[in-house]
Amino acid sequence: MPKTEKPKILVVNDDANSLFALTSLLTQWAEQESYEVLAARSGQEALRQVLMHDFAVILLDVNMPGMDGFETAEAIHQRARSADIPIIFITAFLADELDRLKAYQRGAVDFLFTPVIPQILYAKISVFVALATKNEELKKQARQLSQRTTELTATNARLTREIEERQSAQRQNHAKDEFLAMLGHELRNPLSAISSAASLIGLPGVSAEGVARAKKIIQRQSQHLGRIVDDLLDLSRAMSGKILLNRAPLDLAALVAASLETYRATGRSADYQLVHDLDQGWVDGDATRLEQITSNLIDNALKYTPAGGRIEVRTWTENDDVVLSVRDTGVGIAADLLPHVFDVFVQGSSTLDRSQGGLGIGLSLVRRLAELHGGAIAAESKGPGGGSTFTLRLPRIEHQPVAPPAPAEPVSAHGMPSILLIEDNDDGREMMTMMLSCYGYEVHAAADGNEGVAAAASRQPDVALIDIGLPGIDGYEVARRLRADPATRDIRLIALTGYGLAEDLRRVLDAGFDRHLVKPVDIDQLADVIGGCVPQTVKQ
């Protein structure tokens, strides 16, 4: 801690003998009273000293050539930092009342007459030194108090921040625990149905109708599991910015109309009054992702609206936006939940026996997809029982008609392409082989990468369906080897894999694949892709 400076006394006198006498007199008490003595021979020199030091008191001679004592005092007190320095005037003449008034107007606190009586000088000086010392102590205490206050404020802010972070972490952990419980529940339901249906098919005496119904249950519940996995992967990709949008001009009204027709055709909206008012509005967007937004909003309305309720779907243009609105007459959203409906894992009900079901990530995905399109999503509700409205806004573009695509060349009728399936999962390989065979394809299978490369060289298939995660050498290396061999470089290569991020697509294409499909793949979609890869050149 730095040592506190001693108070300083300035003696100003143009007479050298008088200056020496006063400074000598003051110096003899300096050690006892703990102060320092400085001297000046003129008013100008006194002002320079005042610029450099703080003084407890100034002893100022009245009669000086050039700048006299009154002018010096006035100049000292015009400066803010020295305005409060006490000044004692010293004069050899008996001051009358006018002189005293003039001195006090210039900031004097007292007068001393020469010859100075040492005892009186000592008494007066001691008072001002003591006041300066006390004032410095008070300033020091004020600085310490201010520093302590700053430290306490910082500590309080840190504690407040730590408490908020701890509470936030606790809320997030609680939300994750609830989500994991919901995920287990949502996965077990379809798995249980699939397991029961598969067991039913193998029971003796089961009717053909029962087998058919079991197959439909397996298909429907498998699709449901696929949607759960897709939602989880899409949300993860969206939150990490790894979704790659395939943008193109499209009419949002036409896209929404197609989605609504799917709901009606599948009977999913049969128990509701599903009405629409769709005005044309063009946006630059990814049709698949915008359909995903639309489906999630309509699914949300169906989920939280009792049977017989009304759901209104509208699109219109408003200034520079194309707007989609989905309004329902359902259970509504509580005021405390409304600001959080787009947060991850948030649901109106978190109990496992809730009738709505779902993972609580659909609206989070909607918001992220909207933001990726440069748009925004908002929710409104009058509260429980008051229904809810979700409004999507996307940047509007001017529609520029494009020439219709040239008609696709027909698939050759010379025969079906031969296929090599390279898949290490035994069940998956067997089922895919059986399904492709049912479609009339000639299928050969291999269980690992090296076996697949050998089979491709010996059998020369038209198309190779290659899994990426293979034992031995992975699918990327299989593709590279097939492209490097003149005997197999013309085989059409389709990556059939569970890896679906944007960088996975890039790696697949860089390795030499023609197409990239993410499991599970619908057999009709796979047949279309195979046909697109080899529309004409087919073995006899």
TrEMBL record:
Positions of the Response regulatory domain: 8-129, 418-534
GO molecular function, one example? phosphorelay sensor kinase activity
Specify the protein's topology with respect to the membrane.
Answer: Multi-pass membrane protein
List modified residues, type 4-aspartylphosphate. D61, D467
PANTHER family documented for this protein: HYBRID SIGNAL TRANSDUCTION HISTIDINE KINASE C, TWO-COMPONENT HISTIDINE KINASE
Q: What keywords sit in the KW lines?
A: Coiled coil, Kinase, Phosphoprotein, Transferase
Q: Where in the cell is it found?
A: Cell inner membrane
Q: Which residues form a coiled coil?
A: 128-172
In what residue span(s) does the Histidine kinase domain sit? 182-398
InterPro entries with a match to the protein in the record: HATPase_dom, His_kinase_dom, HisK_dim/P_dom, Sig_transdc_resp-reg_receiver
**E.C. numbers:** 2.7.13.3
List the catalytic activities from the record: ATP + protein L-histidine = ADP + protein N-phospho-L-histidine
A single Gene Ontology CC term: plasma membrane
Report the Pfam families cross-referenced here. HATPase_c, HisKA, Response_reg
Q: What is its main location?
A: membrane
Q: Looking at the record's lineage, which domain of life comes first?
A: Bacteria
Mind telling me what this protein is named?
Answer: histidine kinase
